[in-house]
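Feature request, filed as a ticket because there's no other form

It would be nice if the structure record came with a short human-readable summary line next to the tokens. Right now we just get the raw output. Example of a typical job, pasted below so the devs can see what we mean:
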Amino acid sequence: MKLLDVELSEVRSALALVSEIVCPPFQTALLLMEQRAATEHLGGHLPTRLKGLDAALCGGVPFGVVTELVGPAGTGKTQFCLKLSLLAALPAHYGGLDGGVIYIDVESTFTSRRMIEMGASSFPEIFHSKGMAQEMAGRILVLQPTSLSEFTESLEKIKVSLLQNQVKLLVIDSMAALVPGSLAEFSRIPIVVTNRVRPQSHDESCLYPFQVQKMDRILKDRTRYYSHIVAVPGFHWAHAVTIRLVLEAKSGQRFMKVEKSPTSPPLAFPFTITPSGLSLLTDDGTEMVVPETCNLSSR
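Raw output as currently delivered:
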């Protein structure tokens, strides 16, 4: 009123008009459903060939979202990524996506020899054919950035590479915090990232005030309190991923846990690593109680 020298009614009218212009348009549930149906051909899943896990995820690793693998070193994260890369490059008539793969190997853990071993063990009819192993391996583009700036530059170039190379899977192993979630939505392909863990202090267990009462209850029963390591890089990244799979080893047994998923309750699958990759010991996952899912909570 002072700056424009106008009445209060005019100010309120102007504010209402500006608000109406800048306000995002509303969408009905029907409109969202129609948009989903129109883009259904861009959806789908990359089957992991782990029957129980695929059932829990309604078909496998979904397109268009970020799936995170969390776990200490040596639990099988890279092994899982290598197998997914093979499955994405596999010809369609063998159940694959028949496409290219971009594998960003930040920590130099990619090994082509292990990947070929997995392929020969899992799909002998393909890999024993003349030239097929070379053709499959040739579809997997490996980037090995040596610095943070080089890693960031790689991400900027990926959008072009996705289109030029008919890429059907993007793997980042690891440094997952730098992956923009919008890239998954843009490309409509599965994006799989790996993440490390670090020790958790007791102070972190009650990060927010509303958690204090809950943690006091858990701490009274020490047999139910497992939380001792957490995923990096932090709380905000924890909400940026759609699916989180936790790999860990306990008492000589490896477990893959579906910790976060819009389609599955928290489930744990015992697994082992074989020449063909990860293999579930049972397709029936064990449902976990809340404290168990906090074993590798992402804060």
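Something like this underneath would help us a lot:
The chain has twelve helices and 14 strands.
The CA atoms of residues 128 and 183 lie 36 Å apart.
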